[in-house]
Amino acid sequence: MRLLTSTLALVLTFVLAEASLAHENPAGLAARHNRLAHRDSAVEARAPSGARRCPNRNQKPTSAPAPNFAAAKNLTTPSSTKKPASTPAPPPPPPPPPPAGVINVVSHCGPIGATQQTTALTGPNGKIDWLMCGFESPGGWQPPYVRVQDLITHSLSSALQSPNSPFKACGPYLSIFEKYAQQYGIPSIIMASFSMQESGCNPNTVGGGGEQGMMQITTDKCGGAPGGNCKDPDFNIRTATKFFADTLKAHGGNILSSIGAYNGFYVGLTKEKAFAARWSACCRCQNNGDYIHQFVNGWLQNINAYGPIKLGKYFNLDVCPAH
């Protein structure tokens, strides 16, 4: 009984306390709640920032996204997006080279027409119509530009070794030709060819106009000849070689116009003017229309320009009486 009475008293005390709280001042309750809120904020502030939220241990970690290689292949740099520069069309192939052993120069007067073998009208240094470009036109002779080194030639010493060489008459003077060829830079066979063309390499020759010796130099060039002998071989060859070297320089290195000048040719000379003396008292004062062809395709090839192949097409001196 006493235990039951104690239990009832305890329950009654609890009920009275709850009733007292229900009638407490509302401001006091608010203050109490405010203190609890501040306490929770302070506790949270003291906690490390990384520990404010507990991780979800049931959630599986996510890996970094795999690279998209397909997209990367499609990426291009700015330079690769530019259009490639247009490539110019390749130049046309050069013309095939001429056969070995013939002249090879730029021609402004049609086909050169050179052949390895000398014929009546052509040879290794070009056909006669090319060599005499313009000769039969109103504008006159316009020699193609050819340098000494462009010419196809034999050396004089090797030419003399041939048993049929037309230069046999020049053999005794080979050392003189070569001495002055070296001094003045003119191949010895060129000067020997002048001698063959002019005199047959005969040192005693006197021309119709008084020309002297194997090189047929004019009398105005005879000053200083030893003992006044303009036909002296050493003096004659030296004087002619120096004169031709000076002529070549004056012609800008054009060997064709220089060879022509030795025979009285000049740029612009027409066929009519060259052959005009035919009707005069000095028929042989004509310019030989075949001279250059005979020179470069005959003598320079160790071939006699007057036979067995007669080189040329004009033969204008054939109508003149012999000396």
From TrEMBL:
Bias kind Low complexity: ranges: 76-86
InterPro entries assigned: Lysozyme-like_dom_sf (IPR023346), Transglycosylase_SLT_dom_1 (IPR008258)
Signal peptide residues on this chain, from the entry's feature table: 1-22
Pfam families in the record: SLT (PF01464)
Record flagged with keyword Transmembrane: no
Region (Disordered): 40-103
Keywords: Signal
Compositionally biased tracts (Pro residues): 87-100
Superkingdom field: Eukaryota
Protein name: Transglycosylase SLT domain-containing protein
Organism annotation: Psilocybe cubensis (Psychedelic mushroom)
